[in-house]
Amino acid sequence: MGVFDGLNISGSALTAERLRMDVVSSNIANADTTRAEKVNGQWVPYQRKLVSFTPVNNGSFSDYLTNALGSSSEGLGGVQVSAITNDPTPFKEAYDPTNPDANSSGYVLSPNVDPLKEMVDLMGTQRSYEANVTAMNAQKSIMLKALQIGK
Amino acid sequence: MTITTQAISGLQSPSIQGNNNQSSVKSMTQSFQQALSDAIGNMNQTESNANNQVNQLVNGNASDLSTVTIAMEKSDLMLQLAVNVRDKVVNAYQEVMRMQI
Known about the structure:
Order of helices and strands of chain B: HH
Radius of gyration of chain A: 23 Å
Helix content of chain B: over 70%
Order of helices and strands of chain A: HEEEHEEEH
Number of helices of chain B: 2
Radius of gyration of chain B: 25 Å
Shape of chain A: elongated
Oligomer: heterodimer
Strand order of the largest sheet of chain A: 1-2
């Protein structure tokens, strides 16, 4: 492990959390978008996006070597966003035949975005961002203390 | 006869040890010099990386504010490490110079 590996791990977490915050913002902004994309000639409303994280190895040669030799690596590493997927829950329906977006039965499909869930995700993302910043500050103070050995 | 040859060989040994002392001092100063130049090289690299990232942020090309801040913190740490290495190297050199012959 290098000197700056702790900082790199926390840095990757900060980047991933910022991307998650962007996805939450996109969900909130598109909560009423009834015409997001055209599928088979019909307009489909915006689908709520979900973010999935996956751990990432440091990518150092020693990690690959230990993996190739069969012994398990430590599994320490940062995080990265593996995929941004759509939420499969069904759309909300509202009966309004006068709406130009109404389908043949008179129902208007609107996105499956629940503002309460998005607010909770927002708060969770913010807290985990702050936690990673605290971890990074602790790393830096440890390094500065190490530089004071022998003074 | 054997006693005189032993005495002559005994006279030769201090000069050889003297040469070893000189070469060990030279190798010590050279390794410290290399450590100092390595530290300066690393610090230079991280500082130029931090400068590039700050320039990108000012121009609006930066993807993340956190990566810029982290690069600045890394260059700050490397600078303090280089200052510490310099202090230790200078102290060691002065200690060696203070040795009475």
